[in-house]
Amino acid sequence: MKALLRHSFMRQWAADWSPLRGRAFRLYFSGQAVSLLGTWMQITAQSWVVWELSHSMRAQGIVALLGAVPLVLLAPWAGAAADRFDRRKLLIVAQVAAMGLAFALALLVQTGLIQLWHVYGLSLLLGVVAAVEMPAQQAFIGDLVGMAEIRKALALNGIIVQLGRTVGPALAGWAIAHIGIAEAFWVNGVSFLAVIASLLAIRVVTSERVVSADDRPGGFDEAVRYLLAQPRLLDLLAFTTLASFFVLSNLTIYPALATVVLGGDSRTLGWLLGASGIGALIGSVLVTHLSRALPRVGWALVGCSIWAGAMILCNSFSRTLPTAMACIVATGLTVPFIFTTANGLTQMLAPPQMRGRLLSILLMVGFGLQPIAAIGVGWIGDRFGASQALFFNGCCLVLGGAAMAVRHGLLTWQVGNGTPSVAHQDEPLPAQV
């Protein structure tokens, strides 16, 4: 029986990699793997630059806010553009623009001219690029693999994101200490060439997109009305918001945690961010697979939220680097499941012609408003300390996860192995999809 169970698990785990059988997804997956490594090097290096220039967690929050404001303001246009235009071409333009901004930041740091307002301005411009790119990028993955494989493909995409989070910060910390901080930004700029090349090599993409007169900024209202009529889509949006507000905002606290609480330097920050990536990588590979096999997705989402909050609470009491890293790894175990489940089920439940707009709402509320929480947490950290800010985040996440458990129909909601059928616009989602 043990051998049979082990064989069954290995077969199921191997099936999770089935999207890589397609040439188009393999090309995009490979390019993203290289680009994301550079992206996380830049995130770490930029966080250190802001800390060196300001020694303020509030400044870290402002940088995050400026990078996310365009996600809120441009969401109606970005979602409509992802539904109406060629997503591959949109992504190529966005990658070229992001590469130029990375080179501009590298040049400012290299010449010693960098000032805090430079980082603010470049973060705002990069946010504009991300606002256009993110809905198109998430929907583009569905174009490459189809709705039957979308959750698997998003989980694989999550794996390379977490690999970047694991290796990138450690490389950035080493580069800052031994070579120079500008090199991290130069490497990120060059890494965009990999994903641009992969997009140019992809010629034929399977797309369920239907162009209509509603694929315009005004069509965003239709997507909002559709979302408000679907209780399960609202639940997915709420879980994404909880994880984004009270887990991702911890990145604002980590520079102070590394230096003030743990008495370290840039390498300590790299270890903390790397630990976050390790936990999320393990979660993407194992926890996401195991949780996806659970029929009651509501229970899994509630449990993952409460677990992450409890681990953040434990981290608020840590005073040594190994303890902090262990808590951060434990926090990251369940967070990828929340994000990939919300993203994947949103795409599966969305009408094909509305997928880009619904994803833009998910990104706008879940991630675009997150820096507001980051600024608030940064203010708590500046006033009371980094540990107290972590304690606040942990309490909010635990209480939020517990509150979601009382949502009508959530704990009985079941998701089968097949592709869920799309609900009609005027019909609520059934308890079992």
From TrEMBL:
Superkingdom, natural source: Bacteria
Cell location: Cell membrane
One protein family per Pfam: MFS_3
Membrane topology term: Multi-pass membrane protein
InterPro entries, alphabetized: MFS_trans_sf, TM_effector
Keywords: Cell membrane, Membrane, Transmembrane, Transmembrane helix, Transport
Predominant cellular place of this UniProt entry's protein: membrane
Bilayer-spanning residue ranges: 27-51, 57-78, 90-109, 115-132, 153-179, 185-206, 233-257, 269-290, 297-318, 324-346, 358-380, 386-406
Coiled coil: none
PANTHER family, per the entry: INTEGRAL MEMBRANE EFFLUX PROTEIN-RELATED, STAPHYLOFERRIN A TRANSPORTER
Protein name: MFS transporter
